[in-house]
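Bumping my old thread because nobody answered last time. Still need a sequence for this structure:
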């Protein structure tokens, strides 16, 4: 029997699918037992009655009928909901591959044991620092540091191996290696993201917390465990033609987000447009509505991103453009500078392909950075 890797299988599904919500995120609550400095949720998080378990199960039925495979439960903190297992186990019974994103602090031994009866496809735990002090600074809860570690241990004790991840801020940038060592001691996968965007309501407060573009590039390039992946990615994609449409990330083609009040968005960080599924709408109507909106957003002739030779590995995103400029055609200087600094670093490390043809970049291109103060 011919076998392929799971990642390749997933990529092939996404390439062949059209108008099928294969990968959907449900923000089951905006409530959280932390008050993180960089949280992307709106400052005024609570907007009324959350979807109850029966409504969530109805939405799950709609998603199953539409062909959904991966269902991601996020928040806020999902486990803060007392009825979490009512809709989670229902989703599992429907054959969905369920994923959970949590801060880990509410995962008691009994909760871990119940999860082990129906283990999720994946469980990501965000860990904010390597010390109680750093954790306190970012989340407002020093005791959360101990509870997070205990939650990880509770999961491991019942055979569930979570993945650890970190949002890198100025306050914890020196903890990244130590958190990685912690993950290694547990035998867990670890990832981190130093790119901080505004909140989904447009509040730009989190921008003051992010690293400079140079620091962001450096922290990723310094991780030798990813050098092979960088090299392989560049060899495959650096010569690809630059797309000439605004939405190139797969938004709408393979899924969407549902907030705690039944409002659909095409992505977690694209605040507009929205579609109210709670008020009796249908997924087909939502697809058509989003499609019409996306098709109405035309690339402008002076859009710099659609002319840039670094497009294939830049973090350019319509969500970031919307949050920072209210315009999908606007370049996000922060992401642009990171890409240029990464390009320079990759060349110095010898990871940049030796021969870059038509759609490659030159040393001159890589040095076209702008001054940045943070």
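Sorry it took so long. Here it is:
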């Amino acid at each position: 029997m011919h076998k392929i890797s799971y990642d390749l299988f997933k990529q092939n599904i996404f390439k062949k699918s059209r108008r099928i919500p294969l990968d959907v995120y449900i923000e089951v609550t905006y409530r959280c037992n932390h008050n993180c400095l960089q949280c992307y949720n709106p400052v005024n998080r609570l907007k009324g009655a959350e979807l109850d378990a029966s409504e969530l199960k109805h939405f799950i039925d709609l998603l199953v009928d539409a062909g959904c495979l991966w269902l991601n439960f996020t928040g806020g903190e999902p486990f803060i909901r007392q009825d979490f297992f009512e809709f989670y186990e229902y989703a599992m019974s429907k054959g969905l591959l369920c994923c959970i994103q949590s801060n880990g602090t509410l995962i008691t031994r009994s909760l871990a044991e119940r999860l082990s009866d129906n283990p999720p496809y994946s469980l990501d735990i965000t860990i904010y620092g390597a010390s109680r002090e750093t954790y306190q600074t970012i989340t407002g809860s020093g005791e959360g540091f101990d509870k997070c570690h205990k939650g990880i241990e509770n999961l491991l004790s019942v055979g569930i191996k979570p993945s650890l991840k970190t949002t890198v801020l100025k306050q914890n940038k020196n903890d990244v290696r130590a958190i990685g060592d912690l993950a290694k001691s547990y035998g867990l996968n670890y990832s981190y993201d130093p790119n901080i965007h505004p909140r989904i309501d447009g509040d730009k407060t989190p921008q003051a917390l992010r690293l400079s573009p140079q620091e962001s590039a450096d922290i990723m390039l310094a991780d030798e465990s990813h050098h092979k992946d960088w090299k392989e990615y560049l060899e495959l994609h650096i010569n690809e033609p630059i797309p000439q449409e605004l939405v190139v990330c797969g938004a709408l083609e393979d899924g969407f987000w549902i907030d705690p009040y039944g409002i659909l968005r095409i992505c977690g960080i694209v605040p507009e447009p929205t579609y109210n599924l709670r008020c009796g709408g249908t997924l087909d109507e939502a697809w058509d509505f989003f499609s019409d909106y996306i098709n109405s957003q035309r690339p402008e002739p002076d859009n710099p991103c659609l002319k840039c030779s670094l497009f294939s590995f830049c973090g350019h995103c319509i969500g970031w453009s919307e949050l920072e400029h209210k315009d999908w055609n606007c370049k996000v200087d922060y992401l642009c500078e990171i890409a240029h600094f990464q390009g320079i670093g990759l060349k110095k490390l010898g990871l940049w392909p030796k021969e870059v043809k038509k759609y490659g970049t030159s040393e001159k291109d890589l040095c076209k950075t702008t001054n940045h103060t943070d």
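The first strand starts at residue 23 and ends at 27. Let me know if any region looks off to you.
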